């Protein structure tokens, strides 16, 4: 007698199929991990390769930029050196000129000499003007007396003399104006002398100028320049007085 067939329930069928599905999932998971590992390995290899190549490119680019920067800085340094050299030469030349002024003032009293010469001009023009005015006043008196005694054309000429005498008096005002202008020049020279002294003090005083060779004036290069001194001042030694000159003709 045969046994009846037992019905297989759905739960049992799913239980038997489950192990096969798990194995498939495990295989897919393993395959996926392998792929990921392979991709990771390729990425690491690519990263190492690019890392080995990139520094060389970066270093090469950085070196070029550094060289270009150094060239620019070097050109700027050369220009600055040239400017500093020009400034230095200008300072040395200025020191030579100042030293020449100081030496001339110390040895020959240049500034004081100029002041004395200008004072002599004022005194000379004043003396000459006084002489002219004194003589003109006498001429005016004589012309007035002649005009009173003369008649006709002769009287007219005497009156013309008086008119011209007035012009002489007016022209003699030059002496006062000349004295004022000369005084302005003296004040300017004193101002320059003070500024030169202050400049020397700023650069360290006379000690800084002891080794500076003064600039020579053109007339100092002429061997006969010392003979062209012009009229002597009253206080100059060795000058011949007017009495000595007159004695030569006696």
UniProtKB/TrEMBL annotation:
InterPro entries in the record: Chemotax_Pase_CheZ
GO molecular function: catalytic activity
GO CC list: bacterial-type flagellum
SUPFAM superfamilies linked to this entry: Chemotaxis phosphatase CheZ
GO biological process: regulation of chemotaxis
A Pfam family: CheZ
Full protein name: Uncharacterized protein
